[in-house]
Amino acid sequence: MKVLLIGSGGREHALAWALSRSPLCDTLFIAPGNPGTQACGVNVALNALDFEKVLEFIEKKEIGLTVVGPEQPLVAGISDFLEGKGHSVFGPSTVAARLEGSKQFAKDFMVRHDIPTAAYKAFEGDYFTQVLEYVDAKNEYPVVLKADGLAGGKGVLIPENREELLAGLEELFKGTLRAAAQTLVLEEFMPGEEASVFALCDGEHFEIIGTAQDHKRQLDGDKGPNTGGMGAYSPSPLLQKDMLQMVSEQIIAPTVAGMAAEGNPFKGFLYVGLMMTPEGPKVVEFNCRFGDPECQVIIPRLQSDLLTHLVQSTKGALQGEDIVFDDQYRTTVVLVSGGYPLSYQKDFPIFGVDKIQQTDDFQIFHAGTKQYGGQLCTAGGRVLNVVGTGETLHESISMAYKGLEAISFEDMFYRKDIGAKGLNHVS
Ligand code: AMP
Ligand code: GLY
Fold it and tell me: What pLDDT, on a 0 to 100 scale, did the predictor assign at position 320?
């Protein structure tokens, strides 16, 4: 089968690596891919949001399955469009992708189906004064302000006091977040540690495809601004067998069943972001795709064939699919351009990557890299994911940090404490 994978980040490099190893995969195309995915297949310069061009390519190359990595093309409707033309797509429909694309849709859905999440209230239109009056009346901080729409991970603000609330409201109501924040969701703050569960869904059934914890903040000790992810580890020690069973029964099963019952069956990767609160696990957010960098620590653990699982999902035949993992831990440290997620420079040469011996126990997944002539260069904020493997979480952390010593580029930055929070929960 010929496969087209859409996306260009570390997540897509990890997916490309696994898909290219499948006995079912004849040729893998990645659009647009990155220098790392080039080693797994053929990179093609296609813009995923130009659906007609994607269709033309699929028909010309006789692609059997299109796998969509990032959320933007899903929310924009790529699955409906391609399926409408008779092509197989792994990734949810536009309406199902609203679980990620609209926070209000997700919250209303969770209330309808009794899925544990933070209490909330949505505000529309001219909401600045209304929100202020509402929070003033309660006078409880922190509160959580969320732009309803996609905001590239920047749409959540957590003011600790009235001054920060005013600044946050300015940002959402009048600032750069305005387009995503036509509707604002105000949420109760949930205390606890975050962890994520990933489910493979075929519209009716689901199978867990891994657990992980990421590190969203820029600096050690969870300081600094939120980023797309500075590192992750899998499995999450907070989601051992019994807890995972509870999350499956109380959160994932009603989500999959609820979407189907409402006529919007969810097919694809369902990313369930959880807060492990004193009252039990509650949903922080849903995403309609795999996590990045969580994918980079989960996919290498998979022993069974990813492509077979994806094909079965698109056919609605996931039931009975045996998803097999190894029993090792994986940790990824993300090497970023200094300054990311704020301003940073790029186009610096990257040294050392080609000298590193990659094995199944030590891998490098590319994200923001580019090849200029024969030289690998930085091309984005998150540049490379270095993934270490170990019998224990501790060993996998050491392996990742030891491996990255050989890599360098100007302004290279990374957190030194990836995985450390997980060590508190393992013996
Ligand atoms: P989201 O985009 O909804 O995942 O939110 C981004 C981040 O904000 C999450 O990863 C949490 O760290 C934090 N967050 C979101 N909602 C809440 C909440 N209700 N209580 C506490 N923290 C939250
Ligand atoms: N690691 C967070 C995300 O993929 O949204």
Answer: 87
194 CB near ligand 1 (under 6 Å): yes
Q: Out of 172-176, 253-257, 292-296, which region has the weakest mean confidence (pLDDT)?
A: 172-176
Ligand at minimal distance from the CA of 334 is 2
Centre of ligand 2 from the C-alpha of residue 132, in Å: 30
Taking the CA of 150 as reference, the closest ligand is 1
For residues 4 and 30, give the distance between their C-alpha atoms in angstroms, rounded to a whole number. Answer: 6
Answer whether 216 contacts ligand 1 (Cβ < 6 A).
yes
Give percent of the chain above pLDDT 90.
Answer: 92
Q: Is 285 close to ligand 2, i.e. is its CB under 6 Å away?
A: no
Looking at this protein, which amino acid is placed at residue 81?
Answer: F
Give me the torsion for CA of 52, 74, 228, 156, rounded to 10°.
Answer: 130
Residue 300 in tokens: 């290498």
Measured in Å, residue 284 CA sits from the centre of ligand 1 at 6
Q: Which domains does the chain have, with CATH numbers?
A: 2-98 (3.40.50.20), 126-181 (3.30.1490.20), 193-314 (3.30.470.20), 329-425 (3.90.600.10)
pLDDT of residue 143 exceeding 90:
yes
Among 15, 230, 270, 287, the mutation site with the greatest number of ligand 2 atoms within 8 A of its Cβ is 287
Which pTM was predicted?
0.96
Q: What is the pLDDT of residues 307-354, one digit of tens each?
A: 999 999 999 999 989 999 999 999 999 999 999 999 999 999 999 998
Using alpha carbons, select from 274, 307, 269, 315 the residue that is nearest to residue 288.
269
Mutate to test the pocket of ligand 1, among 104, 141, 146, 158 (most ligand atoms within 8 A of CB): 158
Determine contact, residues 364/354, Cβ cutoff 8 Å: no
**Nearest-atom index, ligand 1, CA of 192:** 21
Q: How far apart are CA 21 and CA 24, in angstroms?
A: 9
User: What does the CA dihedral 46, 297, 243, 246 come to, rounded to 10 degrees?
Assistant: 20
Question: Buried b / exposed e across 190-215, counting CB within 10 Å, b at 16+?
Answer: bebebbbbbbbbbbbbbbbbbbbbbb
